[in-house]
Amino acid sequence: MRFLAAFFIAVLYWATTITAAPAIIKPFKVCDPTAKGPFLRQRQEAALKDFAKLFLIDKNPKAAFDKYIPGEYIQHNPDALSGREVAIEYLITLQATPGLVYSNITLISGNGLGLLHYRRKSVQADMDMAIMDRMGFKGTCMNEHWDVRQRIYGNETNPLAFF
Ligand SMILES: *[C@@H]1O[C@H](CO)[C@@H](O)[C@H](O)[C@H]1NC(C)=O
Ligand SMILES: *[C@@H]1O[C@H](CO)[C@@H](O)[C@H](O)[C@H]1NC(C)=O
């Protein structure tokens, strides 16, 4: 009897660790717009981190969008219209800019939002910007975008400017 109890506790422990832990840690094949529950915040944080890796480190916006923005994409950038195809096309061209480097990448998530803050620089293309992309989550997918951009000239009054 005691053996049986111990066995059940062991199974229960195993089941809890197996079902709970990987949901937080394991990267998703594709996001889930219906995801909810107590670990949603952690899962959104993991999604944002993986999205940033695909987008800014691998410079593969198509892969980032296919995995995390598979459906609607509500755009608030004043120079662009909504829709993921428009954004992917723009970003593929942008990522091909010669000498493009991303640095000072910071990620924050919570309250159903994810924020990417980073520097996008290309000496060849005379491009140097401090950018914040605010992403809206739907489950572990993202479906909305706002951004703020600042031009970096290198002559700023504040020695702590931008980062
Ligand atoms: C920003 O990135 C540059 C280049 O990697 C680095 O030298 C600098 O220390 C970073 N600044 C901050 C505030 O992290
Ligand atoms: C820095 O340089 C830019 C571009 O030349 C200029 O528009 C801006 O006024 C300058 N800012 C300061 C604080 O000198």
Automatic annotation (TrEMBL):
Top-level taxon of origin: Eukaryota
Signal peptide as annotated in the record: 1-20
InterPro entries: NTF2-like_dom_sf (IPR032710)
Keywords, ordered alphabetically: Signal
Name this polypeptide is given: SnoaL-like domain-containing protein
Source species of the chain: Candolleomyces eurysporus
Lineage, top ranks: Eukaryota, Fungi, Dikarya, Basidiomycota, Agaricomycotina
